[in-house]
Write a structure and sequence with these properties.
The chain is α+β, with helices and mostly antiparallel strands. Helix content is 15%, strand content 31%. It has a single domain, classed as Rossmann fold, CATH 3.40.50. The strands form 2 sheets. A 3-stranded mixed β-sheet has the order 1-2-3, with helices on one face. The protein is globular, with a radius of gyration of 14 Å.
């Protein structure tokens, strides 16, 4: 993934399913934002500023996995801290049109 590919916009769309699209803010400096309603609790992480997965463990990031839906931007930086089963979504800019994105979805199971 790269900057400006639409990661936060994707999360906004995801939140809209739960009626939470007006709540979104980027967790770049806070690392995690929590969104909640009667349907679900969603944790939106941006781990770009973490140096490695040990910092993720230090903030108790792995403890969120059993508490709700976790959406993690830059998850490849903490790949060894991710659950054994997760959905990996890659968003990239289209080389021919800056307004288009390519999204690939892969189910990861170890």
């Amino acid at each position: 993934m790269n900057f400006g590919s639409g990661k936060t916009k994707f999360v906004e769309g995801f939140l809209s399913y739960f009626g939470l699209e007006n709540e979104i803010s980027s967790p770049t400096f806070t690392i995690v934002n929590e969104y909640q309603n009667e349907k679900a609790t969603i944790y939106h992480f941006d781990v770009y500023r973490l140096s490695d997965s040990s910092e993720f463990y230090e903030i108790g990031g792995d403890e969120y996995f059993d508490k709700g839906i976790c959406l993690i931007e830059w998850g490849e930086l903490i790949e060894d801290a991710l659950p054994k089963n997760y959905i990996h979504i890659t968003i990239s800019k289209d080389n021919d049109d800056d307004n288009k994105r390519r999204i690939s979805i892969e189910n990861i199971e170890y």
